[in-house]
Design a protein that fits this description.
Layout (H helix, E strand, L loop, with lengths): L2 E3 L17 H11 L1 E5 L1 H9 L4 E7 L3 H8 L7 E4 L1 H8 L7 E6 L6 H5 L4 E5 L5 H13 L5 E3 L9 H7 L8 E3 L7 H6 L3 E5 L6 E2 H6 L6 E5 L8 H5 L3 E4 L11 H11 L3
Parallel strand pairs: 1-4, 3-4, 6-7, 6-11, 7-8, 9-11, 9-12, 10-12
Antiparallel strand pairs: 2-5, 3-5
Helix pairs in contact: 6-7, 6-11
Length: about 270
């Protein structure tokens, strides 16, 4: 493997890894350059298992032995090696997980491809918190949700924090953007999906009651933005509004927690 030791954090060869803590910058740069960053040995492993191709690896000396089995099949991909302090100066944070990989960003599938064969999918409207997006994907994978569709303003599932929080499940659960919004919901209905919007509404059906009635053969669970929840347009595009019954005067859950409850309650 081509080990490239570096001692200059401003080396142009390290551009993919520079300023990873600048969220606004990375949101612009990564999609435009066709890359994303996988952080930690387990996440890199899942990215490679999903068939994604690495552009390079960045690793501290201490962690090289642990990732050698992952990088061995990629003899032409450079491995940038430096001290932990140097890695921090390049990335902007303490890389305590020891290794990063700059990965080629795969092309997004079509909505039809994501829906093909799926019985249950999630639809996310305008989630802007990368941690929440990653957590929703992890719950989706754990509870057997077979696809995720994101409204145009949703945060990037391949942003480093989303990938890390998801434990790499963003590579396992098929996903794509749903446009135009909310008119794109018609594509789900055309494929035979019933759309259930999770929202606070006087006419909302309690989630447990909705599940007990007998779930539709194909179901799309729609969740909205942190704070504001689903838009009026999204709710109008749903077939039914569903709510999670709560106690102690609590009227809502964090969207990631709500997704886990909804995915569990509607599992096959």
């Amino acid at each position: 493997m081509p080990i490239v030791r570096f001692d200059d954090p401003l080396d142009p060869a390290l551009a993919d890894y520079r300023d990873l803590t600048d969220v606004a910058l990375r949101r612009r740069v990564e999609p435009s350059l066709g890359l994303y960053i996988a952080e930690s040995q387990p996440v890199i492993a899942r990215a490679l298992e999903a068939g994604h191709a690495p552009r390079s690896f960045l690793c501290s000396d201490k962690w090289l032995p642990s990732i050698e089995p992952l990088i061995a099949p990629w003899p032409d991909v450079p491995v940038f090696l430096g001290s932990g302090g140097l890695l921090e100066r390049v990335t902007g944070f303490n890389v305590h997980r020891g290794a990063l990989a700059a990965m080629q960003r795969p092309e997004l599938p079509s909505v039809t491809e994501v829906l093909k064969g799926a019985k249950r999918v999630a639809v996310l409207e305008d989630l802007v918190n990368h941690t929440n997006v990653g957590a929703v994907f992890r719950s989706a994978a754990a509870m057997g949700v077979e696809g995720v569709l994101l409204a145009p303003r949703c945060a990037d599932p391949l942003y480093r924090r989303s990938v890390r929080v998801s434990m790499g499940t963003v590579f396992q659960v098929p996903w794509t953007r749903l446009e135009p919004w909310p008119e794109g919901l018609d594509a789900l209905r055309a494929e035979g999906f019933a759309i259930a919007a999770l929202a606070l509404d006087d006419d909302a059906v309690p989630l447990d009651e909705f599940a007990a009635r007998g779930l539709p053969e194909r179901l799309a669970l729609m969740l909205g933005a942190e704070g504001d929840g689903l838009s009026h347009g999204a709710i109008a595009g749903a077939d039914v509004t569903v709510t999670i019954p709560m106690s102690a005067g609590v009227d809502s859950l964090n969207v990631a927690a709500a997704s886990a409850v909804a995915f569990w309650a509607t599992r096959a």
